[in-house]
Design goal:
The chain has helices at residues 4-8, 12-20, 26-35, 41-57, 65-71, 73-77, 81-94, 98-110, 118-127, 131-144, 149-161, 165-178, 187-198. With 209 residues, the protein is mainly alpha-helical. It starts with a helix and ends in an 11-residue tail after the last helix.
């Protein structure tokens, strides 16, 4: 058997992260899980837990999610404190405890253990009502990834929250152009298109910068 850290270090989580961006992530996620069936036993079950936690952290609403997260507690405990906190943040998000989740994310950022996708922890800060903190974290990440559409979508939300409508429109048009070739089921692209419609922007076929 390969060590757990080797299994979890492969590109599987990148694939599951992509699946988490779809409106219906389970078929693709299940297909990726099948790729690991050769390991079987505990390793496969740990991978299933990490994959599901990732879906919840991405904001997916999946029936029975609370039970599935609870079922993962003992397995995730074997991966160490960072994994346990990952599960705790997912549970907090599922339960709408955004301020607590934001506090825990800040603790992890302070001690260098935060591994969430950057747009996710910015989003959690924003939903918790901590717009200044969300903007601070967002600006830090945009210096590293200035064209990341997930980060730019969070920037759009923050600009709308501060009533900077013109700049929000400009950023949103950039996102739409970037995601024009995205999977039709891409959840965040759909979110961007809905925002564009609400702001009276041209559809994706007409979008220009």
């Amino acid at each position: 058997d390969a060590p757990v850290n080797v299994i979890l270090g492969r590109d599987f989580m990148t694939k599951v992260d992509y699946a988490s961006r779809l409106e219906n992530p389970l078929p693709m996620g299940d297909a990726y899980i099948e790729e690991l069936s050769e390991y079987g036993g505990t390793y496969l079950e740990i991978y299933k837990c990490y994959a599901f936690i990732n879906l919840v952290l991405a904001g997916q609403k999946i029936p029975g999610a609370a039970t599935r997260l609870t079922d993962c507690i003992d397995l995730i405990a074997t991966t160490g404190e960072a994994g346990q906190q990952y599960l705790v943040i997912a549970t907090m998000r599922l339960q709408g405890r955004y301020e607590e989740a934001a506090d825990l994310i800040d603790q992890r950022l302070a001690n260098g253990t935060e591994v969430l996708e950057a747009a996710t922890y910015v989003e959690i800060q924003r939903i918790a009502g901590r717009l200044d903190r969300a903007a601070e974290l967002l600006n830090e990440q945009l210096k590293k990834q200035p064209k990341n559409p997930n980060l730019l979508l969070e920037k759009t939300h923050l600009l709308l929250a501060t009533q900077d409508i013109d700049q929000a429109k400009e950023v949103l048009m950039t996102i739409i152009k970037t995601w024009q070739a995205a999977d039709p089921d891409h959840r965040k692209y759909g979110e961007a298109l809905k925002l564009a419609e609400l702001m009276g922007l041209p559809n994706q076929d007409q979008a220009t910068i």
